[in-house]
Design brief:
The chain has 147 residues and is an alpha+beta fold. It is built from four helices and nine strands. The structure holds flavin mononucleotide.
């Protein structure tokens, strides 16, 4: 069996590079919270990450205005909740989080940030504001502040 296939389109070059697992992104600002799935997340250096959050998502103004966000690596057991959090927008359903079936918890000092039970990794990041890349590429950078 030949598993090696050429990349024929420039728009497909992400395939060998975006090999990371799907993450869950928790955001919070002005008393509002959200959690969404994000596969476009990766380490930037030893303690920093980048994550892409589309401008149409409810999570977007929350990450733009909030000081912190969390990235989590969900386990297979909560795959159905991940798919719900990644296919329903809080723009359409304000009760998205409640209806997702996911269970949430918080940690001291970050009580506004809903962390998801059933993950293997939780890291809280402080957003590093980079207005140009945020606007041009929907890309947000964070520096780890709590594991
Ligand atoms: C597996 C998976 C990966 C996703 N990755 C991303 C991503 O990296 N960036 C993004 O902006 N949206 C991504 N999405 C889509 C958002 O998670 C989805 O649109 C979500 O409903 C947005 O929720 P919100 O509007 O409440 O913020 C992904 C969805 C799934 C199912």
């Amino acid at each position: 069996m030949n598993c090696i296939k050429p990349i024929t389109n420039l728009s497909d070059i992400y395939r060998p590079f975006n090999i990371g697992a799907t993450t869950l992104v928790s955001t919070s600002s002005d008393g509002k919270t959200d959690v969404m799935a994000a596969a476009w997340a990766c380490a930037l250096n030893y303690d920093m990450v980048s994550v892409v959050i589309d401008s149409t998502h409810y999570s977007r103004p929350l990450i733009e205005r909030g000081k912190y966000f969390a990235l989590q690596l969900p386990l297979a057991q909560i795959a159905d909740k991940v798919m719900y959090l990644g296919s329903v927008s809080k723009n359409d359903d304000p009760e998205k989080l409640e209806k997702s079936g996911a269970e949430f918890f918080t940690v001291p000092g970050f009580e506004d940030l809903p962390l998801v039970k059933g993950c293997g990794v939780w890291v809280i990041f402080e957003r590093v504001p980079e207005q140009h890349v945020e606007k041009a590429y929907d890309l947000f950078i964070g520096k780890a502040v709590r594991v």
